[in-house]
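Objective 1b. Sequence-to-structure analysis of Vacuolar protein sorting-associated protein 54.
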Amino acid sequence: MAKFSGAFDLKEPPPWQNCCYCSGSPASSTSTSSSASTTVATSPNPRQQQQLQIQQSQQLLSFKSPADFVRHLRQHHCTVEGGSYVCRYGYNEVCASLPLDGVSDRDYEMHVNRCHVNQQQKESQIKWSVFSAAQNLPAVLNDPSRSKQTHFFTKKWGDAFVEHQSIGTSPQLPDIKWDHFDFYLKRIGKRYRVHNRIAKTALPSSSSSQGQQPVVSDRLPNGATANLKDIPEVFLKHNLELHSPASFAAVFPDIGNDGEQAKQSSRLLQEKLSHYLDIVEVLIAKQVAEKSSAFFHAMTSQDAIMEQMREATALVSRLRSRLKLIDDTIIRESLQIISLERVRSNNNIVLERLKLMSTVHQTQPMIQLLLSTQDYVAALDLISTTQEILSAELVGVHCFRHLPSQLTEMERLIDKMLTTDFERYSTSDLNRPFAGENRLVEKVLDEDKLICIISGLLRKRNLDFIDTYKQEAITTVRAIVKQMVIEVIASGDAEVCLTGAGEEAQSLSLSEWIVLLETATVTLMRLLRRVRSVHDVMQQTADASAGKITDDVSFIDTEAFLSAEDYEIVKTKLANLLQSVCNYCHERCANLVSNQSLEKSSVSADQIAKLTEIVERFSDGCEEVCGIQSVPLKLALRAQGTRYAQKFHSERKSKMALLLDSERWKQAEVPAEFQKMVESISKGVFLWNKSSEMNGGTPVSSPPPQAVLMVDGQPFALVGAALLLVQIVSEYCRCASQLPVIATQLARNVIDLLRTFNSRSCQLVLGAGALHVAGLKTITSGNLALVSRALQLVLWLLPHVKRHFQSLEPNGTSTGSTTILTGYDSIEKDFASHIKEIENKVLAIVCDLVTNQLSNWDARPPVPSQPFRNISRQFVKLHEAIAPILPEKQVATIYRVVHKNFKDKLREQLLRNNITNNGGPQHGTVVSELTFYMETLRTLKAMPLEELRDETLDDIWLK
């Protein structure tokens, strides 16, 4: 095993070098004991005895060879039992390798050499220390650069646990060679050689035996050798104390004995002391002789040193004289000036402190004076400043020991005064009567006093005064509303009771409610303006207290004392003040509007319009005051409007259902009022008055009714239900114009009404429901044409209605507007689909008749045949039924489809009868029939003449 740097050998001594289970062998004990005894006898020194004992213990535990160790084991750690040897070398005299069995002499020697000598030498134990750590096991196991090894955990731990890798040179370190040490070796080498030469000269070599240090000695006059070791140790101590009994007994051992022996002991002691003195003198002489050169050198340099001392003494004397001169002429006067300046400064400090004490003494009268003028901020500032002066500059002044507590109590009193004054001011300001006229700006009561109170509260950081004012304002609103309700109730004759909130629990007339609401909104609006005025004063005071720029002359010289955090809190609370008061006013008014008594009253559109005007005026005023829109009152108005719209719609819808059920589906006359109404609608104006017009106070008779309704120059033959539908839709539009708050709901109601008209008319006509409801015998083409024309009138009306409701929307792109537009588009598609169904129904009736007649027709005389006569007769009846009702374009479309269907059926019949265009008799009969058919169509003029030429019938013949 290699050794580490610093000459550390980690291997323990060989196991046979000493015995681990006993102190030593008997063989070595005798020799060591004898040597120890001789040593003790030779030297009486205790230190030498201690060293000899250490050497003895080391010799007892060591053996010079393995044979001595084996001999020791046989003598002390082996027992013979019946001729067999049992090894007892181990703990508790039990060998771990051969615990119980006895073996022969030869086997015992093999066992000792194998288990206790040789094997332990092969596997010698290593005494571990911090220098034994060769690898870091976690670092080796976590090394990502190493691959998986199968023999990793089978290797023996040590510096060879992992493979050694060569570490390259670092670019950060220079390449050191022997040449770099040449200069150092040359410089140190000279000094080292000189040192060795001096050491050899100063310390002559002397023989030393057995590792002991050489002793400087010489011969005494009697020939003995002088040695310091011969002198007892007690004489060599630094602090020899003869008064100590122990020391005295060691120096004079037999001083207390009597007789001849005591005299001899005294003589012997004197000789010993003389001998010790001679040794010391000889050694001193020897030492002086060895250092004689140094003594001579010191004596020769003594004269030079004395000369230098005389020169230094003269220089010091001259320096002291000059320093004394400078001290007398410059330093003392300057120091005196500094001392006088310090005295003057101290006197000034005392004077300033006395002036300050005089000023502080006048604090309480000044505070009383400021409070009498309501300058609370200055009083609080004075208290704060005085407190700071007392705690910083007048600490320990006995006459002011009670002033801080007095100022604290006075500050609390000012805080209570401010709170009381503000509450008193709020109550008196909010409850004072309003001016006769409705002014837009309310004048603040005692503005200067209010500014002083608010400034004092802000200076004290008592920000709860805003919440106090808000609660007082809310209480005032509640009292005003309750007082007005009481006045309204007192004006009536009925006995009613009031709830705790002030609303009336019994029913009032709608006119009384409107008057009550109008009066309440006007009064509350004045109160809100008064609150806004106080709010503005509070805001300006807070701005000035926070150092914000303000244009008011009253705040020009105001000192900023409000922190930014407190200013933000005040600003937030002031904004919340206006919003809370406005919202509460709206809630109180909303409770009046949404009272259950309104549900029992019959509300008209004019009354709802009046309510809307009151609410809008109050909402606009509140928005002007607080800057936000309040919702409760508008929601209450919307609820009343919704209730009115539902009632309005249910009445019109029931009326329309009754009209449709009683409708006979006959053409009705059109009064002049309806004609004027349609003309107004075509201009986008839904205004119509059924009463007769007045000309200079004289009623003018209305024109006679007309057979048809002229719409944009086109005649509309209509039933009475269609005319009333237009009138009802106009009422919806007029109501929406009068009440924009329910315009969206009315727009939805119009869609529902039109959808009801469409579905019910379809059930009565196409579904033949009128046969049972109205008692009709049959549903004719004229009935279908009238329904179609009524639906066409609604299609004409729809864009005007849609534009009207869209114009009433405050934001045309809102979700409600989009929903309404989608609903109108849907109902328009439903009406167009219904018209198409009616047209298909008419076509189906005619086409079925044509098919039935042509199925029985044959090309035989007489001409025209009866089937063709019947077809012509039905065409004439159809034209007589629909021509006065439907427009010519639609009639032409119907007859075009009928004519096409006739040609298709005739072609099939000709194919069935095998009649071709060959000029035969049957061909001539067919041509005569067709001539009669075409003359009928030309006579009816149902289609354009260019479509009724004879050439148009050529496609009935097969090519």
